[in-house]
Amino acid sequence: MTKVKLEFKEGDRHGKLTVLSSESVYKVSEKGRKTRHISCLCDCGNKTIVTPDKLVSGHTTSCGCFGKERLKASSITHGLCGEPLFDVWRSIIARCDNPNDLRYPYYGARGIDYPIAWKDYHSFMDEMYPTYEEGLTLDRIDVNKGYSKENCRWTNMSVQGHNKRPFIGGSSVYTGVALHEVNKWTVYININRKRCYLHLWTEELDAAKAYDDASELLYGDRPNKTEPSDDEIREKVEKKLKLKGFI
Questions:
Q1: Mean pLDDT of 207-230
Q2: Residues in CB range of 153: below 8 A, 6 or more apart
């Protein structure tokens, strides 16, 4: 069977390579074997010669610079492992994109996403590094919305611990509220990894308001989005927090 000779024209593109001439270049090995090559110019500016089969099959698409760039990028990314912000970024991508990630059901499956630009670690760094301080964690202000510069802040574990969705399958639709065994609603808030209980309440909404009052006093926000409560609820909450030495 006759082998078809591959033809090339000046200007043909193959990956990052441009064919310089339709004329072939031949190299002779130490054993005297003659091998046909095509002269090419790489986008990086280097000239190289490539065998026709590797050029056509896509095996060779550059002078070698592309492989070096990928290796360098891989080395840089690998070298970032263990850095606080890189680990935060990698965790965001995994929990939002990877169905095999244990946290995916609570993030990606719920529609929690991130800006397309954050697919690149350096874009994430550009937006979030200026406000970062060592020891802080990334927290979404509205836990039902995705990651973004506008909806994220760097906080300590106490703030992040209280700013969570209600427990899935829990007895209350509100954060920090649970049905007590005596058919009343108990309220608790986490402060410096300690749990502070804030009385029992007959009405679930009053319990949610009590939690939000405590959160507002401690952290400046109202996670349950309730309206500021009446003086009686507020006074009970303040009294308990002062008794425990938290305010």
A1: 85
A2: 131, 138, 139, 141
Length of the chain: 247
How far is it, in rounded angstroms, from Cα 145 to Cα 153? 13
CA atoms within 13 Å, Cβ hemisphere of 221: 14
**Considering the domain boundaries, does residue 1 fall inside one?**
no
Domain membership of residue 7 (yes or no) is: no
Domain range for 225: 159-243
Cα separation, 77 vs 68, in Å, equals 14
Tokens in use for 11? 């200007």
pTM as predicted: 0.46
Domain-embedded: residue 123: yes
Query: What φ, ψ does residue 230 adopt, rounded to 5°?
Result: -75, 170
Buried b (16+ CB within 10 A) or exposed e, 158-193: bbbbbbeebeeeeebebbbbbeeeeeebbbebbbee
Mean pLDDT, all residues of the chain = 82
